[in-house]
Amino acid sequence: MTKQKKEFLNWLSVQTMTKQEKEFLKLFTDDKNIYFYQTIVATIDHLKRQVIVKNWSSRATSKHINYVANLLNYQTIKLY
Length: 80
What we know:
The protein contains three helices and five strands. The protein has helices spanning about 5-15, 20-25, 60-70, and strands at about 25-30, 35, 40-45, 50-55, 75-80. Strands 1-2-3-4-5 form a five-stranded mixed β-sheet, with helices on one face. The longest helix is centred in the last third of the chain and has 14 residues, at about 60-70. The radius of gyration is 16 Å and the shape is elongated. The model has no long low-confidence stretch (mean pLDDT about 85).
């Protein structure tokens, strides 16, 4: 497959994504934090099996945080 064809298929897959799937592209995590765009929105505590949210987040961001917590099978703790 040529590079141009791969780029087109990637572009096409993004075009056919739902709004929720596009939002999840902005979500990522490392071993310690959950990020939305480049902002840390929660901290992951693997010893206590918790996702800790220190500040209020929008409803959409809260859904993303809960999604990651559910994937890890961790409890979400709100400190605000």
